[in-house]
């Protein structure tokens, strides 16, 4: 059994691809629905945020499974294979575990230390359990991941000044406006980051929000969520007259707010400050507007730049975090080593139980006048014979589980009881509880 | 006694300034408390010295350049102490206290010439003239400090280089508001002070306007602040431009207040040498 992780993120993907990733993470359709196409894959976990796509899976046939999951990923991202292939990375076993731990602890984030990623992984895990694509290994791995991320958060200061991009944007707004309570926020377009920024602003006391979107339905949907009003997209320049903070993240190719739009309107605004947070790639707001007095424009790269300033201070904390991750990866590795024994034991038990049930059925049909009491006695009898019979081999296997020689014994047991046909049919579930 | 008090005041202001500069770098409650208390002690000594000197002379002791400058520094510290309590804006101290310390030092360095005190100074108009103008100037000095803070903060935000200062300085809106408030209170005070001066001049020289350099510069300064106030209220000027004009205005105040005293001759010189 091997663990693989294949994916791409903001570090490996160029801007054009990142845009696509951001769209992908808003898709309603989950690739987990197509997991049946991947015959070589035992367990599958899929994570998508606006900065990354990751597929984590276990398999006993690495080559084939990788090929299948690649197909699945490229089909899901929806871009031609040659365009994507160069930007994907593949991690195997320990590397994969370490990568997942780093992602969850927000060490691999665009904004190191940002707290949202853990929630996103939890959501993804919930999705995977809903589709029943995770079993013993990934269940354990994901739960471990959550605890590692929590450890990193509590034992290091990495999330302390923690500053996701949206948080940094809100901090800036406070440095411009001071009090945000009486400020009016305009939300143009939608997207994860924009919504997060909006949530942060609401948390800071903003009460008044306007949503503008090209499609009215989407605007109304957002407006309902943030208790905001809506304004027509065509009227955007006029809407700018009475708002203070603009969060923009449309998919527009051309800037939707230009210097020429804004200049005359600043005078009509009586020069009240206007703060643009442009999260879109490519940009929604013409960079020239930053030249206007009392207009402040920050795009995603600027915000990232600010957050990186904090990063240098946090480098030491990151090292502490890496240490935690290393030791936890090692621990997981140890568990993983016992694991090869576990499915064998489960298969052994399952086979014995299947034989017992079949034989009981045969016997009961031959002796129709047995009473309920006798039947139960026979069932209990056979069960305890099996248990006692299997007890010693199981204990033997468990004892070998941390030794290097265990593969030999596992293999031997499987041949002895002819278990190979049994394995791989279905992933054992956690409830079988031999971990 | 008086010189001891003055020396104490200068020392306190300097210590307070150093304290506030440390406070600018390190955000520690203790540092602020200590600096604030030291400034209060300085202001008390300073006030006592001014009272002693005035009692000795029989009129308000602002008739020599050093006295005037020292009086101004005192008003500035008082203005800061009051405003910092009202506005809860401590970081302002890091910008105002150096200013006060510099003025105070200046007052000890400037040459003192003896002027015979006469009945010329014993008029209510003089007291109104001096008190209102000095209060206005102190407020303009605070506005000047706020304007510098605004420009620093604005630059950091516009250029997207958010360093230490960015973290320590208050929000732009707040700084702009302080500027605005100082202007709103300072301008009427200045107007009253100037009117009192003209009224008094007309009783002494039979004419309110005598083309004295001090008068000309005072009027220019008044015009600068009048323009700033008008632009702010009517056109909606704010932010960077208003900050620059506040700095320009305060430079004009300094020229009127000190430059004219020191470098230009006029009939006002009989009051302040």
From TrEMBL, chain A:
Keywords from the UniProt entry: NADP, Oxidoreductase, Porphyrin biosynthesis
Highest rank taxon of the organism: Bacteria
Site residues (Important for activity), renumbered to this chain: 99
Active site: 50
PROSITE patterns: GLUTR
Keyword Oxidoreductase (UniProt): yes
One record GO biological process: protoporphyrinogen IX biosynthetic process from glutamate
Chain positions recorded as substrate binding sites: 49-52, 109, 114-116, 120
GO MF annotations in UniProt: glutamyl-tRNA reductase activity; NADP binding
Domain Quinate/shikimate 5-dehydrogenase/glutamyl-tRNA reductase: 171-306
Pfam families to which the protein is assigned, alphabetical: GlutR_dimer, GlutR_N, Shikimate_DH
Main EC class the enzyme belongs to: oxidoreductase
Residue ranges annotated for the Glutamyl-tRNA reductase N-terminal domain, each copy included: 6-156
Residue span(s) of domain Tetrapyrrole biosynthesis glutamyl-tRNA reductase dimerisation: 320-419
Binding site for NADP(+): 189-194
Pathway(s) the chain acts in: Porphyrin-containing compound metabolism; protoporphyrin-IX biosynthesis; 5-aminolevulinate from L-glutamyl-tRNA(Glu): step 1/2
Miscellaneous field: During catalysis, the active site Cys acts as a nucleophile attacking the alpha-carbonyl group of tRNA-bound glutamate with the formation of a thioester intermediate between enzyme and glutamate, and the concomitant release of tRNA(Glu). The thioester intermediate is finally reduced by direct hydride transfer from NADPH, to form the product GSA.
Record remark: domains: Possesses an unusual extended V-shaped dimeric structure with each monomer consisting of three distinct domains arranged along a curved 'spinal' alpha-helix. The N-terminal catalytic domain specifically recognizes the glutamate moiety of the substrate. The second domain is the NADPH-binding domain, and the third C-terminal domain is responsible for dimerization.
Subunit structure: Homodimer.
Function, in words: Catalyzes the NADPH-dependent reduction of glutamyl-tRNA(Glu) to glutamate 1-semialdehyde (GSA).
HAMAP family in UniProt: Glu_tRNA_reductase
Protein name: Glutamyl-tRNA reductase
Organism: Desulfacinum infernum DSM 9756
Taxonomic lineage: Bacteria, Pseudomonadati, Thermodesulfobacteriota, Syntrophobacteria, Syntrophobacterales
TrEMBL record, chain B:
Subcellular location: Membrane
Record-given protein name: Cytochrome c-type biogenesis protein CcsB
Annotated transmembrane regions: 6-24, 36-55, 67-83, 95-115, 127-152, 181-201, 216-235, 242-264
Domain of life: Bacteria
Domain Cytochrome c assembly protein: 67-268
Coiled coil start-end: none
Claim: Cell division is one of the keywords in the record: no
Species lineage: Bacteria, Pseudomonadati, Thermodesulfobacteriota, Syntrophobacteria, Syntrophobacterales
UniProt organism field: Desulfacinum infernum DSM 9756
Gene Ontology CC terms: plasma membrane
Keywords in alphabetical order: Cytochrome c-type biogenesis, Membrane, Transmembrane, Transmembrane helix
Topology within the bilayer: Multi-pass membrane protein
Pfam family, one: Cytochrom_C_asm
Keyword Chloroplast: no
Gene Ontology biological-process entries: cytochrome complex assembly
GO molecular function, one term: heme binding
NCBIfam families: cytochr_II_ccsB
């Amino acid at each position: 059994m091997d663990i693989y992780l294949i994916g791409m993120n903001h570090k490996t993907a160029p801007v054009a691809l990142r845009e696509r990733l951001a769209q992908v993470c808003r898709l309603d359709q989950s690739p987990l629905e197509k997991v049946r196409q991947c015959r070589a894959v035992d367990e599958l976990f899929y994570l998508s945020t606006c900065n990354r796509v990751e597929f984590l899976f276990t398999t006993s046939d690495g080559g084939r499974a990788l090929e299948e999951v690649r197909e699945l990923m490229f089909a899901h991202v929806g871009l031609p294979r040659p365009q994507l292939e160069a930007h994907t990375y593949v991690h195997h076993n320990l590397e994969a575990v370490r990568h997942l731990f780093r992602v969850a602890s927000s060490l691999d984030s665009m904004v190191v230390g940002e707290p949202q990623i853990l929630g996103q992984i939890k959501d993804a895990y919930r999705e995977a359990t809903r589709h029943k694509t995770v079993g013993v290994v990934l269940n354990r791995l994901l739960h471990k991941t959550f605890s590692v991320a929590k450890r990193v958060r509590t034992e290091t200061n990495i999330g302390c000044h923690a500053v996701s991009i949206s948080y940094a944007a809100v901090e800036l707004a406070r440095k411009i406006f001071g009090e945000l309570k009486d400020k009016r926020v305009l939300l143009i377009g939608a997207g994860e980051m924009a919504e997060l920024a909006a949530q942060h602003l609401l948390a800071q006391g903003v009460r008044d929000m306007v949503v503008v979107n090209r499609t009215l339905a989407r605007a109304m949907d957002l407006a309902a969520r943030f208790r905001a009003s809506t304004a027509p997209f065509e009227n955007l320049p006029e809407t700018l007259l009475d708002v203070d903070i603009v969060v923009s993240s449309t998919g527009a190719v051309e800037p939707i707010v230009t210097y020429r739009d804004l200049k005359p309107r600043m005078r009509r605004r009586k020069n009240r400050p206007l703060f643009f947070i442009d999260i879109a790639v490519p940009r929604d707001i013409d960079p020239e507007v930053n030249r206007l007095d009392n207009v402040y424009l920050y795009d995603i790269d600027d915000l990232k730049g600010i957050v990186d300033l904090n990063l240098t201070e946090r480098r030491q904390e990151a090292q502490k975090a890496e240490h935690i991750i290393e030791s936890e990866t090692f621990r997981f590795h140890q568990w993983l080593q016992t694991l090869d024994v576990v499915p064998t034991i489960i298969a052994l038990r399952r086979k014995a139980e299947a034989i017992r049930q079949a034989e009981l059925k045969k016997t009961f049909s031959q002796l129709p006048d047995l009473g309920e009491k006798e039947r139960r006695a026979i069932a209990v009898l056979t069960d305890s014979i099996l248990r006692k019979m299997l007890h010693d081999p199981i204990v033997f296997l468990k004892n070998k589980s941390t030794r290097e020689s265990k593969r030999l014994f596992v293999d031997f047991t499987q041949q002895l009881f002819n278990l190979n046909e049994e394995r791989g049919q279905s992933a054992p579930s956690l409830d079988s509880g031999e971990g | 006694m008086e010189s001891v008090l003055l020396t104490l005041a200068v020392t306190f202001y300097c210590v307070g300034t150093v304290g506030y500069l440390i406070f600018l770098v390190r955000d520690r409650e203790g540092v602020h408390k200590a600096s604030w208390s030291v400034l209060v002690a300085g202001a008390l000594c300073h006030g006592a010295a001014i009272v002693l000197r005035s009692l000795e002379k029989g009129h308000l002791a602002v008739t020599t350049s050093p006295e005037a400058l020292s009086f101004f520094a005192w008003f500035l510290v008082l203005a800061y102490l009051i405003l910092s309590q009202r506005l809860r804006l401590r970081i302002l101290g890091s910008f105002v206290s150096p200013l006060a310390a510099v003025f105070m030092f200046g007052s000890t360095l400037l040459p003192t010439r003896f002027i015979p005190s006469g009945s010329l100074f014993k008029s209510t108009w003089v007291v109104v003239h001096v008190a209102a103008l000095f209060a206005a100037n102190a407020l303009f000095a605070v506005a000047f400090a706020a304007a510098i803070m605004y420009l620093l903060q604005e630059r950091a935000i516009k250029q997207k280089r958010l360093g230490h200062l960015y973290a320590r300085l208050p929000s732009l809106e707040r700084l702009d508001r302080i500027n605005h408030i100082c202007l709103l209170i300072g301008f009427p005070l200045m107007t009253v002070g100037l009117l009192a001066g003209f009224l008094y001049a007309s009783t002494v020289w039979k004419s309110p306007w005598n083309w004295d350099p001090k008068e000309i510069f005072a009027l220019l300064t008044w015009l600068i602040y009048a323009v700033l106030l008008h632009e702010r209220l009517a056109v909606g000027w704010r932010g960077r431009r208003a900050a620059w004009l506040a700095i320009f205005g305060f430079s004009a105040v300094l020229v009127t207040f000190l430059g004219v005293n020191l470098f230009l001759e006029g009939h006002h010189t009989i009051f302040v040498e």
